[in-house]
Amino acid sequence: MIKTVVWKNDAVVLIDQNALPLAEVTVTCRSYQEVIAAIKDLTVRGAPAIGVAAAMGAALGALALPPQPQEVLREKFYKICAEIAQARPTARNLFWALERMKKCLEDVIASADDERSNLRGKIAASPERLLAMTKKALIDEAKRICAEDIAVNRQMGKNGSSLIADGDNILTHCNAGALATAGYGTALGVLRAAREQGKKIHVYVDETRPVLQGARLTAWEMKKEKIPATLITDNMAGFLMQQGRIDKIIVGADRIAANGDTANKIGTYSLAVLARAHSIPFYVAAPLSTIDVSLKTGSSIPIEERSGAEVTHFRQERTAPDGMKVYNPAFDVTPHRYISAIITEKGILEKPYLRSIRSLGKEQFPR
């Protein structure tokens, strides 16, 4: 299995997705600042994978802290989390993971307070003891988030595979596979599950401009998994739909609002509109950690704008005139009315999404 993010010897080991498909190498991060840099420069990308990396980055930050009083420890750790949170603004999973890590710290502090009460202030509640408890708990929580992500993806794949028929031709956009998660994948996880069930499928892979996550990453995964696939440029998708060569479209998500509006890689909205015009089912696959119930609609989802160099250059080679003005939003928002269903680990959510998401219960979306 592809392992995108791994905790090893008190370091975070990442598959270098910028090097793919030309080279299969890893990057080892030994500080939370290095994890932030890896998230920013797309060494690691994909909402679930970013969330796992953020959790592990927070644990790395705690490892570097010296023993200190409870309130100072909390302040320092929250500052680390705040820095990591600035890495990328759109992916909900990043913030969800950091919220879990902060809750983990609060649980440790509460436990230390209990020990101090029981032992009347003896060594159990000293700064050294508190820090040791904190480090172990945060590392364990980061590893748990990673393991849960893989389990969630497998369950999501199983749920979503019911929507895939034998012989389907399926269009994907960007990369929502093992590389976008701790392993297995969201949208591609559904396709993996369908293949594991013996269904014969064929995948059309959108190249996904401007940094070609489809051409570089999804195509690489399809080759690894020996899933029949054809690479197309983004602007070919509508023509293939017109020809009747696409049966379904399935994509991942970076953030989903309470009403089902979905932010995903730029170009997703265009595919959803084309799918509606050609009566093709358009599915979103994402874990519940991607759903942000604090946002009523997609209009409130922050959209990251990235460097214009991603558009004017490819691998340091200029492809546009020097000095050309560039607009480079990394994501767009697909209105819920264009989405046929949302596939999650808790089942397939159907319209109206406001009701189906709410029916999952508040305990599924801890704040």
Would you mind describing this structure in some detail?
With 367 residues, this protein is α/β, with parallel strands linked by helices. The chain has 2 domains: 5-156, Four Helix Bundle (Hemerythrin (Met), subunit A); 159-364, Translation initiation factor eif-2b, domain 2 (Rossmann fold), CATH 3.40.50. It is built from 11 helices and 16 strands. The protein has helices at 32-40, 47-63, 70-85, 92-119, 127-160, 187-196, 213-225, 237-242, 268-277, 309-312, 353-358, and strands at residues 5-7, 12-15, 26-29, 169-172, 202-206, 229-232, 248-251, 255-257, 262-265, 282-285, 291-292, 313-314, 317-318, 331-334, 341-344, 347-349. The strands form 4 sheets. It has a 7-stranded mixed beta sheet, with helices on both faces. Strands 11-8-9-14 form a 4-stranded mixed beta sheet, with helices on one face. A 3-stranded antiparallel beta sheet has the order 1-2-3. The longest helix is centred in the middle third of the chain and has 34 residues, at 127-160. The two termini are 32 Å apart. Residues 119-123 have low confidence and may be disordered.
For the structure shown, list the relevant keywords.
367 residues; alpha/beta; Four Helix Bundle (Hemerythrin (Met), subunit A); Rossmann fold; 2 domains; seven-stranded mixed β-sheet; four-stranded mixed β-sheet
